[in-house]
Amino acid sequence: MKKIYVLDTNVLLHDPNAIYSFEDNEIVIPLTVIEEVDGQKRRQDEVGRHARLIAHYFDELRAKGKLSEGVALKYGGTLRVELTHESTAQLPEDLDPRKPDNQVIALTLQLKAESNGTPVILVSKDINVRVKADALNLQAQDYETDKMVLKEEDLYDGMTTLTVTADDIENFTKTNVYQPSNGQLYFNQFVHFKLVNGTKSSALGRYDAAAGHVVGLAAIKKE
Known about the structure:
This protein is α/β, with parallel strands linked by helices. The protein has helices at residues 9-14, 31-38, 46-62, 100-114, 127-135, 145-148, 166-175, 217-222, and strands at 4-7, 26-30, 71-72, 78-82, 120-123, 139-141, 159-164, 177-178, 190-195, 200-208, 213-216.
C-alpha cells in the first residue's frame, strides 16, 4: 500500500535529497516548511547550502507542473505542496497554531482525516514533534538516511557525465561556458564531458545554477 509522508523542515535541511528517498509514495511538503527553508538560504554554513539546494530542487519540480497538484519525482512517487493555514482547526487548544511545528502537525491530522485509510506518516528529526504527533495518535518517525534511501547507486554523488560534440568541447575550452539542453543538472553538480563517439574527454565543469550553465573548473580557480 502506498503511503503519504509529510516532511518537516529539519528533514530537508538535514538532507536535501530526502525528497527522493521515499520510493513510490506521496510526499507532502507543508507550505510553512517552504517558508522556513527560505529563511535559512542566506546562512553561509551547511544548513544554508542545503536550503539553497532544496530551493533549487523545488524550482526544477515547479517547471514540471503545479506543485499544489503534485509532480512526479525521478525515482518514483510524487511531491506536492499543501497550504497549512486551513488545517490548524484540527489542533487541540493546548497547541499554538501560530508555531510552524504545530502547523505541520495540523496538516498531518487533516491529511489523515482525508486519507481514506492510506497511511499518513509525519517525518521529523525533532523528537518533540514526534512526541506531540504520537499524543495525537499520528504515525511519526525520524529520518534516517541509511534506512530510507532507495539504493546506493541512486544516491546523488555530485557528478554526472554529459555526451557532447567535439565542437562543444572546443567552445567550452575557449569560453569556460557550456549551456546544457536537458535541464537535469543540479546546484553545484560537477560535469564530466564525453564525446558522442564514445571517446572520453578531460574537460570538467561545474553547474552554476544561478547562471544556468556549466562553468569550467579553470574558471572556478580564478574566483
